[in-house]
C-alpha cells in the first residue's frame, strides 16, 4: 500500500496546526501516520489509549511530555506514552506515528 501526499486529505487542527493524514483507521487499526506543520502553539492533550512518536522533519521548538519540556529540532524523535499530557510550541514540521491508530474519542484537551 502506498499513500501519495498529493492525494491525502489536509486538515486544519487549529489556527496554528495543519496535518496531512497519510493513513487512517480505515486502512490500519494498528497505527497511523500524519505529517504536521505547526507555527505557534498546540496546547496540551492526553491520549488515553495510544502511544505516540513525533519525528521532527524541520524547524525548532519545544515539546512538553508530562512535566518535562524538551528543545527539539531536525531529526529529533520524541516518544509519548499513552496517558501523558503533551503539547508543542514553535515552528515545526513533523511526523506523528500513533499506535494503536488515532481515534479522536481517546484524545482530551487539558
Helix content: under 10%
CATH homologous superfamily designation: Jelly Rolls
Global Rg:
13 Å
End-to-end C-alpha gap: 36 Å
The poorly predicted ranges are none
The CATH topology turns out to be Jelly Rolls
Give the count of helical stretches: 0
Task: Name the features.
single chain, 110 residues, mainly beta, Jelly Rolls, 8-stranded antiparallel sheet, 8 strands, globular
Structure write-up:
This protein is mainly β and 110 residues long. It has one domain: Jelly Rolls. It is built from no helices and 8 strands. A hairpin with a 2-residue loop joins strand 4 and strand 5 (68-73). It is globular, with a radius of gyration of 13 Å. The termini are far apart.
Write the layout of secondary structure elements.
Blueprint: E1 10-14, E2 17-21, E3 32-47, E4 51-65, E5 68-73, E6 77-80, E7 86-99, E8 107-109
Amino acid at each position: 500500500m502506498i499513500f501519495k501526499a498529493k492525494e491525502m486529505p489536509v486538515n486544519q487542527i487549529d489556527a496554528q496546526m495543519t496535518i496531512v493524514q497519510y493513513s487512517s483507521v480505515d486502512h490500519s487499526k494498528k497505527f497511523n501516520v500524519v505529517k504536521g506543520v505547526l507555527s505557534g502553539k498546540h496546547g496540551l492533550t492526553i491520549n488515553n489509549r495510544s502511544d505516540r512518536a513525533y519525528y521532527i522533519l524541520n524547524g525548532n521548538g519545544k515539546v512538553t511530555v508530562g512535566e518535562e519540556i524538551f528543545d527539539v529540532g531536525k531529526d529529533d524523535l520524541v516518544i509519548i506514552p499513552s496517558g501523558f499530557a503533551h503539547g508543542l510550541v514553535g515552528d515545526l514540521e513533523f511526523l506523528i506515528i500513533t499506535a494503536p491508530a488515532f481515534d479522536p474519542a481517546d484524545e482530551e484537551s487539558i
